[in-house]
Amino acid sequence: MEMIFLNKDLRSIVDGKNVRPSTTNSQIGWDKRDQRARTSLITSFRDNKMHLVTNVKTSKEVWDTLATIFETQDITSNVIATTCFYSQKMREIESVAKPLSSFNVSKTQLKAIRTTMAYE
């Protein structure tokens, strides 16, 4: 997404560095750029996520709303994946292949969310 904003010269609008000007003539140009950025953001995700940003006015607000939602989900995913990782046990009658496979799946999930494991 960031590359799209850079390509369309909209990044400063989305990240809030370029705020809406106070003069009417400048506001028209800014509003058009903000609308392009907002449209790019909203059309980039699935329909089932659109309800999250229906009442948001600017592209920065859309960006901040989505960041807050997905950062919280990442934290939750991190806790769940870490808990699963540490709670794995091998049964006595089980072959090594199944728990090892489960361990590797957990390891891959943790890597995907960029969690580092502390060695105890």
Task: Supply database-style keywords.
5 helices, mainly alpha, 120 residues
Describe this structure in words.
The protein has 120 residues and is mainly alpha-helical. It is 61% helix and 0% strand. It starts with a helix and ends in an 8-residue tail after the last helix. The model has no long low-confidence stretch (mean pLDDT 76).
Task: State the helix count.
Answer: 5
What letter string, H or E per element, gives the SSE order? HHHHH
Summing up helix and strand content along with how strands pair, one would put the structural category as mainly alpha
Determine the fraction of residues in helical runs and give it as a percent range.
Answer: 55-70%
Q: How many independent structural domains?
A: 1
Number of strands: 0
What gap, in angstroms, lies between the N and C termini? Answer: 38 Å
Low-confidence stretches: none
Estimate the mean pLDDT confidence.
Answer: 76
Can you describe this structure in just a few lines?
With 120 residues, the chain is mainly alpha-helical. The chain contains 5 helices and no strands. The chain is rod-shaped.
Helix-strand blueprint:
Elements: H1 2-7, H2 11-14, H3 24-42, H4 59-86, H5 97-112
Helix pairs in contact: 3-4, 4-5
